[in-house]
């Protein structure tokens, strides 16, 4: 990603944060339309960059993941884009490399669930 694009994304994000925390007033329709356009442009740029970084099979797999878990797909996209910006990715990411990246993310974000069963004792139940 080029520096002007990165700067535009940063400025848009700062404007969103300032609007969110700055005031409780509702945005005007013009402001809302401008925000929607900026968001759609940012999404288009993001998709264009991903199409340059990911192979066709990797993009398909990521699209299938996005259908089931959009937040996980967004996180993977963020990781891939960040790595590309830092110059860690020199060639297109294959499906196998994407799978290994997904496995790494899964091991880092695995939640431990614990189920505890509390049985209620009735007054009429006797242990005798």
Automatic annotation (TrEMBL):
<comment type="similarity">
    <text>Belongs to the PDCD5 family.</text>
</comment>
<feature type="compositionally biased region" description="Basic and acidic residues">
    <location>
        <begin position="33"/>
        <end position="45"/>
    </location>
</feature>
<protein>
    <recommendedName>
        <fullName>DNA-binding protein DDB_G0278111-like</fullName>
    </recommendedName>
</protein>
<dbReference type="InterPro" id="IPR002836">
    <property type="entry name" value="PDCD5-like"/>
</dbReference>
<dbReference type="GO" id="GO:0005829">
    <property type="term" value="C:cytosol"/>
</dbReference>
<feature type="compositionally biased region" description="Basic and acidic residues">
    <location>
        <begin position="7"/>
        <end position="19"/>
    </location>
</feature>
<dbReference type="InterPro" id="IPR036883">
    <property type="entry name" value="PDCD5-like_sf"/>
</dbReference>
<feature type="region of interest" description="Disordered">
    <location>
        <begin position="1"/>
        <end position="45"/>
    </location>
</feature>
<dbReference type="Pfam" id="PF01984">
    <property type="entry name" value="dsDNA_bind"/>
</dbReference>
<dbReference type="GO" id="GO:0003677">
    <property type="term" value="F:DNA binding"/>
</dbReference>
<dbReference type="GO" id="GO:0005634">
    <property type="term" value="C:nucleus"/>
</dbReference>
């Amino acid at each position: 990603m080029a520096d002007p694009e990165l700067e535009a994304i940063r400025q848009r994000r700062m404007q969103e944060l300032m609007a969110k925390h700055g005031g409780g007033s509702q945005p005007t329709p013009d402001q809302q339309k401008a925000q929607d356009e900026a968001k759609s442009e940012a999404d288009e740029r993001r998709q264009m960059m991903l199409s340059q970084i990911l192979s066709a099979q990797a993009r398909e797999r990521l699209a299938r993941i996005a259908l089931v878990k959009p937040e996980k797909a967004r996180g993977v996209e963020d990781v891939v884009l960040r790595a590309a910006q830092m110059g860690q990715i020199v060639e297109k990411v294959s499906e196998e490399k994407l799978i290994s990246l997904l496995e790494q993310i899964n091991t880092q974000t695995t939640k431990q669930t614990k189920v505890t069963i509390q049985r209620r004792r009735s007054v009429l139940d006797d242990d005798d």
